[in-house]
Here is the input.
Amino acid sequence: MSRLSGLEPQPVWDYFEEICMIPRLSKSEEKIRQYLLKFAENHNLEAKEDSTGNILIIKPASPGYSDIKTVVLQSHMDMVGEKNAGFPHDWNRDPIIPYIEDGWVTARGTTLGADDGIGIACQLAILADKEFKTGRIECLFTVDEESGMTGSLNLSSDFFEGRTLLNLDSEDEGIIFIGCAGGIDTVGELKYETENHEKDIEGLKISVTGLRGGHSGDEIHKGYGNSVKIMARILRNLNGRFSISLFSFDGGNLRNAIPREAFAVIGTEKQHKQEIAKWIDDLNKTIKDEIGDIENELQITLKDTALSGSAIDRITRDKLINLLTCCPHGVLGWSREMEGLVETSTNLASVKFTGNNKINIVSTQRSSVESQKKEAAMMVEACFRLAGASVEHSDGYPGWKPNPRSEILSVTAKSYKRLFGRDPLVKAIHAGLECGLFYEKFRGIDMVSFGPTIRGAHTPAEKIEIETVRMFWDLLRDVIINMPAS
Ligand SMILES: [Zn+2]
Here is the structure.
Protein backbone atom coordinates (compact mmCIF):
# COMPACT_ATOMS: atom_id res chain seq x y z
CA MET A 1 0.00 0.00 0.00
CA SER A 2 1.38 3.34 -1.02
CA ARG A 3 1.96 5.82 1.78
CA LEU A 4 0.88 8.78 -0.31
CA SER A 5 -2.08 7.13 -2.02
CA GLY A 6 -5.18 9.24 -2.04
CA LEU A 7 -3.25 12.49 -2.52
CA GLU A 8 -4.14 14.62 -5.52
CA PRO A 9 -2.96 15.00 -8.22
CA GLN A 10 -2.41 11.27 -8.09
CA PRO A 11 0.06 10.84 -11.00
CA VAL A 12 2.38 13.46 -9.48
CA TRP A 13 2.38 11.81 -6.05
CA ASP A 14 2.83 8.35 -7.61
CA TYR A 15 5.94 9.49 -9.43
CA PHE A 16 7.13 11.37 -6.36
CA GLU A 17 6.88 8.22 -4.28
CA GLU A 18 8.76 6.26 -6.93
CA ILE A 19 11.53 8.84 -6.95
CA CYS A 20 11.79 8.57 -3.14
CA MET A 21 12.91 4.98 -3.68
CA ILE A 22 15.91 6.04 -5.77
CA PRO A 23 19.17 7.20 -4.13
CA ARG A 24 20.25 10.41 -5.82
CA LEU A 25 22.72 12.48 -3.83
CA SER A 26 24.66 15.11 -5.74
CA LYS A 27 27.47 13.54 -7.79
CA SER A 28 25.85 10.09 -7.35
CA GLU A 29 22.95 10.42 -9.78
CA GLU A 30 23.53 7.23 -11.77
CA LYS A 31 20.40 5.42 -10.51
CA ILE A 32 18.03 8.30 -11.11
CA ARG A 33 19.57 8.80 -14.55
CA GLN A 34 18.89 5.16 -15.43
CA TYR A 35 15.35 5.52 -14.10
CA LEU A 36 14.67 8.58 -16.28
CA LEU A 37 16.07 6.92 -19.41
CA LYS A 38 14.01 3.83 -18.72
CA PHE A 39 10.92 6.00 -18.26
CA ALA A 40 11.50 7.58 -21.69
CA GLU A 41 11.94 4.16 -23.27
CA ASN A 42 8.77 2.81 -21.67
CA HIS A 43 6.80 5.80 -22.93
CA ASN A 44 8.32 5.81 -26.41
CA LEU A 45 9.75 9.26 -25.91
CA GLU A 46 12.98 10.55 -27.42
CA ALA A 47 15.66 11.06 -24.77
CA LYS A 48 19.28 12.12 -24.80
CA GLU A 49 22.06 12.61 -22.29
CA ASP A 50 25.23 14.65 -22.38
CA SER A 51 28.69 13.82 -21.11
CA THR A 52 28.03 15.62 -17.80
CA GLY A 53 24.98 13.46 -17.10
CA ASN A 54 22.16 15.90 -17.87
CA ILE A 55 19.13 14.31 -19.50
CA LEU A 56 16.55 15.69 -21.93
CA ILE A 57 13.25 13.91 -22.63
CA ILE A 58 11.08 15.27 -25.43
CA LYS A 59 7.30 15.16 -25.80
CA PRO A 60 6.64 16.07 -29.43
CA ALA A 61 3.93 18.55 -30.33
CA SER A 62 0.44 17.03 -30.50
CA PRO A 63 -1.10 16.97 -33.99
CA GLY A 64 -2.28 20.48 -34.84
CA TYR A 65 -0.01 22.08 -32.20
CA SER A 66 3.25 22.37 -34.11
CA ASP A 67 3.10 26.18 -34.33
CA ILE A 68 3.14 26.55 -30.53
CA LYS A 69 6.41 27.69 -28.96
CA THR A 70 8.50 24.92 -27.44
CA VAL A 71 8.61 25.08 -23.65
CA VAL A 72 11.46 23.68 -21.56
CA LEU A 73 10.49 22.32 -18.13
CA GLN A 74 13.55 22.07 -15.91
CA SER A 75 14.34 20.43 -12.59
CA HIS A 76 17.50 19.03 -11.02
CA MET A 77 17.78 15.31 -10.31
CA ASP A 78 20.13 15.43 -7.32
CA MET A 79 19.25 16.15 -3.71
CA VAL A 80 20.92 17.11 -0.44
CA GLY A 81 21.26 14.20 2.01
CA GLU A 82 20.88 15.22 5.64
CA LYS A 83 19.63 12.93 8.39
CA ASN A 84 18.92 13.12 12.07
CA ALA A 85 21.80 12.11 14.32
CA GLY A 86 21.67 8.37 14.90
CA PHE A 87 19.06 7.70 12.20
CA PRO A 88 20.20 4.65 10.22
CA HIS A 89 20.17 5.53 6.54
CA ASP A 90 22.48 4.40 3.75
CA TRP A 91 22.34 7.14 1.11
CA ASN A 92 23.58 4.75 -1.58
CA ARG A 93 20.87 2.18 -1.01
CA ASP A 94 18.01 3.04 1.31
CA PRO A 95 14.73 4.57 0.13
CA ILE A 96 13.43 7.79 1.61
CA ILE A 97 10.29 7.12 3.63
CA PRO A 98 7.69 9.83 3.06
CA TYR A 99 4.63 10.24 5.23
CA ILE A 100 1.74 12.64 5.63
CA GLU A 101 1.48 14.94 8.63
CA ASP A 102 -0.94 17.84 9.11
CA GLY A 103 -1.35 18.70 5.44
CA TRP A 104 2.33 18.28 4.63
CA VAL A 105 4.47 15.42 3.31
CA THR A 106 7.73 14.92 5.14
CA ALA A 107 10.24 12.07 5.50
CA ARG A 108 11.21 9.82 8.35
CA GLY A 109 14.65 10.87 9.68
CA THR A 110 16.03 12.34 6.44
CA THR A 111 15.66 15.11 3.92
CA LEU A 112 12.60 14.44 1.78
CA GLY A 113 14.09 15.47 -1.55
CA ALA A 114 10.99 17.42 -2.56
CA ASP A 115 13.73 19.85 -3.59
CA ASP A 116 13.62 19.03 -6.44
CA GLY A 117 11.84 15.63 -6.59
CA ILE A 118 8.49 17.38 -6.91
CA GLY A 119 9.74 19.13 -10.06
CA ILE A 120 10.79 15.77 -11.54
CA ALA A 121 7.46 14.16 -10.59
CA CYS A 122 5.49 16.90 -12.36
CA GLN A 123 7.67 16.62 -15.47
CA LEU A 124 7.11 12.85 -15.62
CA ALA A 125 3.36 13.17 -15.07
CA ILE A 126 3.17 15.63 -17.96
CA LEU A 127 5.36 13.51 -20.24
CA ALA A 128 3.24 10.42 -19.49
CA ASP A 129 -0.10 12.12 -20.16
CA LYS A 130 -1.01 11.15 -23.72
CA GLU A 131 -4.32 13.02 -23.55
CA PHE A 132 -2.63 16.34 -22.78
CA LYS A 133 -2.60 18.29 -26.07
CA THR A 134 0.40 20.63 -26.17
CA GLY A 135 3.17 22.08 -28.30
CA ARG A 136 6.62 20.52 -28.07
CA ILE A 137 7.78 20.04 -24.49
CA GLU A 138 11.41 19.47 -23.59
CA CYS A 139 12.01 18.19 -20.06
CA LEU A 140 15.51 19.01 -18.84
CA PHE A 141 16.89 17.20 -15.80
CA THR A 142 20.23 18.60 -14.64
CA VAL A 143 22.75 16.87 -12.38
CA ASP A 144 24.59 18.22 -9.37
CA GLU A 145 22.67 21.43 -8.78
CA GLU A 146 23.18 21.25 -5.04
CA SER A 147 26.94 20.96 -4.91
CA GLY A 148 28.31 23.18 -7.63
CA MET A 149 25.75 23.40 -10.45
CA THR A 150 28.20 21.53 -12.66
CA GLY A 151 25.31 20.09 -14.71
CA SER A 152 24.00 23.45 -15.89
CA LEU A 153 27.53 24.87 -15.95
CA ASN A 154 28.53 22.31 -18.58
CA LEU A 155 25.32 22.32 -20.64
CA SER A 156 26.04 22.77 -24.30
CA SER A 157 24.07 25.49 -26.04
CA ASP A 158 22.42 23.06 -28.49
CA PHE A 159 21.29 20.45 -25.95
CA PHE A 160 17.70 21.70 -26.18
CA GLU A 161 15.79 23.85 -28.68
CA GLY A 162 13.28 25.79 -26.63
CA ARG A 163 13.97 29.36 -25.61
CA THR A 164 11.19 29.57 -23.05
CA LEU A 165 12.01 27.80 -19.79
CA LEU A 166 10.08 27.05 -16.63
CA ASN A 167 12.42 26.32 -13.73
CA LEU A 168 10.55 24.06 -11.28
CA ASP A 169 12.90 24.53 -8.35
CA SER A 170 11.54 27.27 -6.13
CA GLU A 171 9.85 26.87 -2.81
CA ASP A 172 7.18 29.49 -2.30
CA GLU A 173 3.70 29.00 -3.72
CA GLY A 174 2.30 32.33 -4.87
CA ILE A 175 5.64 33.79 -5.95
CA ILE A 176 6.99 33.84 -9.49
CA PHE A 177 10.74 34.38 -9.57
CA ILE A 178 12.21 36.30 -12.49
CA GLY A 179 15.80 36.97 -11.51
CA CYS A 180 18.72 35.89 -9.37
CA ALA A 181 22.20 37.07 -8.48
CA GLY A 182 25.53 35.83 -9.76
CA GLY A 183 28.42 35.54 -7.37
CA ILE A 184 32.21 35.63 -7.23
CA ASP A 185 34.75 35.35 -4.43
CA THR A 186 37.60 37.80 -4.03
CA VAL A 187 40.37 36.53 -1.77
CA GLY A 188 43.34 38.58 -0.61
CA GLU A 189 46.56 37.48 1.03
CA LEU A 190 48.89 39.68 3.06
CA LYS A 191 52.35 38.50 4.06
CA TYR A 192 53.95 39.76 7.23
CA GLU A 193 57.23 39.62 9.13
CA THR A 194 57.20 38.76 12.79
CA GLU A 195 58.42 41.34 15.20
CA ASN A 196 60.04 40.92 18.55
CA HIS A 197 58.02 42.81 21.03
CA GLU A 198 59.20 44.66 24.07
CA LYS A 199 59.43 42.53 27.16
CA ASP A 200 57.09 44.51 29.34
CA ILE A 201 53.99 44.41 27.18
CA GLU A 202 50.92 42.49 28.29
CA GLY A 203 48.28 40.65 26.30
CA LEU A 204 44.63 41.55 25.80
CA LYS A 205 42.07 39.50 23.95
CA ILE A 206 39.27 41.45 22.29
CA SER A 207 36.11 39.53 21.37
CA VAL A 208 33.19 40.65 19.21
CA THR A 209 30.37 38.12 19.56
CA GLY A 210 26.61 37.72 19.53
CA LEU A 211 25.88 39.16 16.09
CA ARG A 212 23.16 37.64 13.93
CA GLY A 213 25.30 36.80 10.91
CA GLY A 214 22.92 35.59 8.22
CA HIS A 215 23.09 34.66 4.56
CA SER A 216 25.34 36.96 2.57
CA GLY A 217 22.78 37.11 -0.26
CA ASP A 218 19.29 36.96 1.22
CA GLU A 219 20.11 39.06 4.28
CA ILE A 220 22.81 41.47 3.15
CA HIS A 221 20.38 44.42 3.09
CA LYS A 222 19.22 44.01 6.67
CA GLY A 223 22.02 46.08 8.18
CA TYR A 224 23.30 43.41 10.54
CA GLY A 225 26.68 44.04 12.14
CA ASN A 226 29.82 42.61 10.56
CA SER A 227 32.19 41.36 13.27
CA VAL A 228 35.26 41.80 11.05
CA LYS A 229 34.39 45.42 10.33
CA ILE A 230 33.70 46.08 14.01
CA MET A 231 37.01 44.53 15.05
CA ALA A 232 38.85 46.56 12.41
CA ARG A 233 37.19 49.69 13.77
CA ILE A 234 38.29 48.87 17.31
CA LEU A 235 41.86 48.18 16.26
CA ARG A 236 42.07 51.31 14.11
CA ASN A 237 40.99 53.48 17.00
CA LEU A 238 43.30 51.79 19.50
CA ASN A 239 46.18 51.93 17.04
CA GLY A 240 45.82 55.67 16.70
CA ARG A 241 45.81 56.27 20.43
CA PHE A 242 48.09 53.70 21.97
CA SER A 243 51.02 51.72 20.85
CA ILE A 244 49.62 48.25 20.20
CA SER A 245 51.14 45.09 18.77
CA LEU A 246 48.84 42.78 16.83
CA PHE A 247 49.33 39.07 17.57
CA SER A 248 46.28 37.62 15.86
CA PHE A 249 43.01 38.41 14.13
CA ASP A 250 40.41 35.71 13.53
CA GLY A 251 36.96 36.68 12.27
CA GLY A 252 34.17 35.10 10.26
CA ASN A 253 33.91 31.62 8.84
CA LEU A 254 31.89 30.75 5.72
CA ARG A 255 32.25 32.83 2.57
CA ASN A 256 28.47 33.03 2.12
CA ALA A 257 27.72 34.09 5.68
CA ILE A 258 27.94 37.55 7.22
CA PRO A 259 30.59 37.19 9.97
CA ARG A 260 29.13 36.84 13.47
CA GLU A 261 32.26 36.75 15.62
CA ALA A 262 35.80 38.10 15.60
CA PHE A 263 38.71 37.77 18.00
CA ALA A 264 42.00 39.63 18.19
CA VAL A 265 44.97 39.45 20.55
CA ILE A 266 46.96 42.61 21.07
CA GLY A 267 49.92 43.51 23.23
CA THR A 268 50.25 46.84 24.99
CA GLU A 269 52.13 48.49 27.79
CA LYS A 270 50.60 47.81 31.16
CA GLN A 271 49.97 51.52 31.81
CA HIS A 272 47.54 51.67 28.86
CA LYS A 273 45.37 48.73 29.78
CA GLN A 274 42.88 50.61 31.85
CA GLU A 275 42.51 53.36 29.29
CA ILE A 276 42.00 50.76 26.56
CA ALA A 277 39.27 49.08 28.58
CA LYS A 278 37.49 52.38 29.08
CA TRP A 279 37.89 53.27 25.47
CA ILE A 280 36.46 49.95 24.26
CA ASP A 281 33.57 50.40 26.62
CA ASP A 282 32.83 53.77 24.98
CA LEU A 283 33.05 52.29 21.50
CA ASN A 284 30.72 49.48 22.57
CA LYS A 285 28.14 52.12 23.49
CA THR A 286 28.62 53.97 20.21
CA ILE A 287 28.11 50.80 18.16
CA LYS A 288 25.07 49.83 20.21
CA ASP A 289 23.62 53.25 19.47
CA GLU A 290 24.11 52.53 15.80
CA ILE A 291 22.84 48.95 15.50
CA GLY A 292 21.61 47.91 18.95
CA ASP A 293 18.01 47.83 17.74
CA ILE A 294 18.74 44.84 15.47
CA GLU A 295 21.84 43.48 17.19
CA ASN A 296 20.78 43.36 20.82
CA GLU A 297 23.02 40.37 21.65
CA LEU A 298 26.22 42.09 20.49
CA GLN A 299 29.03 41.86 23.02
CA ILE A 300 32.44 43.46 22.83
CA THR A 301 34.64 42.17 25.61
CA LEU A 302 38.22 42.54 26.71
CA LYS A 303 40.22 40.22 28.89
CA ASP A 304 43.81 39.60 29.92
CA THR A 305 45.57 36.86 28.07
CA ALA A 306 49.07 35.41 28.02
CA LEU A 307 50.99 36.36 24.90
CA SER A 308 52.49 33.59 22.84
CA GLY A 309 54.28 33.77 19.50
CA SER A 310 55.21 37.05 17.91
CA ALA A 311 53.39 40.15 16.81
CA ILE A 312 53.14 41.01 13.13
CA ASP A 313 55.32 43.83 11.84
CA ARG A 314 53.95 47.32 12.26
CA ILE A 315 53.74 48.12 8.58
CA THR A 316 51.55 45.06 7.87
CA ARG A 317 49.49 45.76 10.99
CA ASP A 318 48.66 49.20 9.61
CA LYS A 319 48.01 47.83 6.12
CA LEU A 320 45.61 45.20 7.46
CA ILE A 321 43.71 47.71 9.56
CA ASN A 322 43.49 50.14 6.64
CA LEU A 323 42.43 47.40 4.24
CA LEU A 324 39.62 46.23 6.49
CA THR A 325 38.49 49.79 7.12
CA CYS A 326 38.45 50.60 3.44
CA CYS A 327 36.96 47.30 2.19
CA PRO A 328 33.24 47.77 1.46
CA HIS A 329 30.58 45.55 3.01
CA GLY A 330 26.84 45.48 2.33
CA VAL A 331 24.55 46.72 -0.43
CA LEU A 332 26.29 48.51 -3.30
CA GLY A 333 23.26 49.05 -5.52
CA TRP A 334 19.49 48.55 -5.72
CA SER A 335 17.59 47.34 -8.76
CA ARG A 336 15.58 49.90 -10.69
CA GLU A 337 13.49 47.18 -12.36
CA MET A 338 12.36 45.50 -9.15
CA GLU A 339 11.54 47.56 -6.11
CA GLY A 340 13.26 46.29 -2.98
CA LEU A 341 15.68 43.98 -4.81
CA VAL A 342 19.36 44.28 -3.98
CA GLU A 343 21.15 44.39 -7.32
CA THR A 344 24.77 44.38 -6.18
CA SER A 345 26.38 43.65 -2.82
CA THR A 346 29.60 42.55 -1.21
CA ASN A 347 30.25 40.54 1.95
CA LEU A 348 33.52 40.92 3.84
CA ALA A 349 33.36 37.34 5.05
CA SER A 350 36.49 36.41 7.01
CA VAL A 351 40.01 37.21 8.12
CA LYS A 352 42.33 34.41 9.24
CA PHE A 353 45.96 34.19 10.23
CA THR A 354 46.94 31.04 8.35
CA GLY A 355 50.02 30.17 10.35
CA ASN A 356 52.74 30.69 7.76
CA ASN A 357 53.16 34.45 8.14
CA LYS A 358 50.14 34.99 5.93
CA ILE A 359 46.76 36.59 6.47
CA ASN A 360 43.85 35.39 4.35
CA ILE A 361 40.95 37.76 3.68
CA VAL A 362 37.82 36.35 1.99
CA SER A 363 35.00 38.35 0.44
CA THR A 364 32.06 37.55 -1.87
CA GLN A 365 30.35 39.82 -4.39
CA ARG A 366 26.88 39.26 -5.87
CA SER A 367 24.86 40.98 -8.56
CA SER A 368 21.99 40.23 -10.92
CA VAL A 369 23.91 42.33 -13.47
CA GLU A 370 27.00 40.45 -14.61
CA SER A 371 29.07 43.55 -15.38
CA GLN A 372 28.27 45.01 -11.96
CA LYS A 373 29.33 41.79 -10.26
CA LYS A 374 32.73 42.12 -11.96
CA GLU A 375 32.94 45.80 -11.10
CA ALA A 376 32.24 45.07 -7.44
CA ALA A 377 34.94 42.39 -7.44
CA MET A 378 37.39 44.87 -8.97
CA MET A 379 36.52 47.44 -6.34
CA VAL A 380 37.36 45.00 -3.55
CA GLU A 381 40.46 43.84 -5.40
CA ALA A 382 41.67 47.44 -5.74
CA CYS A 383 41.27 47.96 -2.02
CA PHE A 384 43.24 44.78 -1.27
CA ARG A 385 45.97 45.80 -3.72
CA LEU A 386 46.35 49.26 -2.20
CA ALA A 387 47.34 47.44 0.98
CA GLY A 388 49.88 45.35 -0.93
CA ALA A 389 47.86 42.11 -0.78
CA SER A 390 47.90 39.55 -3.58
CA VAL A 391 44.40 38.84 -4.92
CA GLU A 392 42.59 35.90 -6.51
CA HIS A 393 39.02 35.52 -7.75
CA SER A 394 36.93 32.34 -8.00
CA ASP A 395 35.36 31.45 -11.35
CA GLY A 396 32.02 32.58 -10.01
CA TYR A 397 28.59 32.01 -11.49
CA PRO A 398 26.40 34.40 -13.48
CA GLY A 399 23.22 36.23 -12.52
CA TRP A 400 19.85 36.46 -14.21
CA LYS A 401 18.72 40.03 -14.78
CA PRO A 402 14.98 40.43 -14.14
CA ASN A 403 12.82 41.32 -17.13
CA PRO A 404 9.44 42.52 -15.87
CA ARG A 405 8.22 42.66 -19.50
CA SER A 406 8.94 38.97 -20.16
CA GLU A 407 6.37 37.08 -22.25
CA ILE A 408 6.43 33.94 -20.12
CA LEU A 409 6.02 36.03 -16.97
CA SER A 410 2.90 37.59 -18.46
CA VAL A 411 1.53 34.14 -19.44
CA THR A 412 2.27 32.69 -15.98
CA ALA A 413 0.86 35.65 -14.04
CA LYS A 414 -2.35 35.57 -16.12
CA SER A 415 -2.74 31.82 -15.57
CA TYR A 416 -2.23 32.29 -11.86
CA LYS A 417 -4.85 35.01 -11.60
CA ARG A 418 -7.35 33.02 -13.69
CA LEU A 419 -6.87 29.91 -11.55
CA PHE A 420 -6.65 31.37 -8.07
CA GLY A 421 -8.38 34.75 -8.34
CA ARG A 422 -5.44 36.82 -7.16
CA ASP A 423 -2.18 38.17 -8.52
CA PRO A 424 1.01 36.27 -7.75
CA LEU A 425 3.97 38.09 -6.24
CA VAL A 426 6.77 38.63 -8.73
CA LYS A 427 10.24 38.61 -7.22
CA ALA A 428 13.91 38.19 -7.85
CA ILE A 429 16.33 36.79 -5.31
CA HIS A 430 19.78 37.99 -4.34
CA ALA A 431 21.23 34.46 -4.41
CA GLY A 432 22.16 31.93 -7.08
CA LEU A 433 19.85 29.75 -9.24
CA GLU A 434 20.61 27.53 -12.23
CA CYS A 435 18.67 30.08 -14.29
CA GLY A 436 21.70 32.40 -14.06
CA LEU A 437 23.74 29.85 -16.00
CA PHE A 438 20.96 29.37 -18.58
CA TYR A 439 20.69 33.14 -18.94
CA GLU A 440 24.39 33.44 -19.68
CA LYS A 441 24.51 30.48 -22.05
CA PHE A 442 21.27 30.91 -24.01
CA ARG A 443 21.12 34.57 -25.01
CA GLY A 444 17.57 35.86 -25.00
CA ILE A 445 16.08 32.86 -23.17
CA ASP A 446 12.80 33.77 -21.45
CA MET A 447 12.36 32.17 -18.01
CA VAL A 448 10.35 32.08 -14.82
CA SER A 449 10.76 29.91 -11.75
CA PHE A 450 7.91 28.73 -9.53
CA GLY A 451 7.06 25.82 -7.28
CA PRO A 452 4.95 24.57 -4.37
CA THR A 453 5.72 25.52 -0.78
CA ILE A 454 8.66 23.64 0.71
CA ARG A 455 10.03 24.37 4.15
CA GLY A 456 13.23 23.19 5.82
CA ALA A 457 14.94 22.25 2.53
CA HIS A 458 18.38 20.69 3.02
CA THR A 459 17.46 19.57 6.56
CA PRO A 460 15.72 16.46 7.96
CA ALA A 461 12.75 18.73 8.70
CA GLU A 462 12.13 19.26 4.97
CA LYS A 463 8.41 19.17 4.15
CA ILE A 464 6.13 20.05 1.27
CA GLU A 465 2.62 21.43 1.60
CA ILE A 466 0.14 19.11 -0.10
CA GLU A 467 -2.39 21.72 -1.14
CA THR A 468 0.29 23.82 -2.88
CA VAL A 469 1.37 20.82 -4.98
CA ARG A 470 -2.08 20.74 -6.53
CA MET A 471 -1.86 24.51 -7.17
CA PHE A 472 1.62 24.10 -8.67
CA TRP A 473 0.36 21.32 -10.94
CA ASP A 474 -2.68 23.31 -12.09
CA LEU A 475 -0.54 26.36 -12.78
CA LEU A 476 2.08 24.38 -14.66
CA ARG A 477 -0.50 22.76 -16.93
CA ASP A 478 -2.32 26.01 -17.52
CA VAL A 479 0.89 27.81 -18.51
CA ILE A 480 1.71 24.99 -20.95
CA ILE A 481 -1.79 25.16 -22.47
CA ASN A 482 -1.42 28.91 -22.89
CA MET A 483 2.00 28.90 -24.51
CA PRO A 484 1.91 31.41 -27.38
CA ALA A 485 2.50 30.58 -31.03
CA SER A 486 6.06 30.87 -32.23
ZN1 LIG B 1 16.67 22.72 -5.61
Observations:
- DSSP finds eleven helices and 23 strands in the chain.
- The two ends are 45 Å apart (CA to CA).
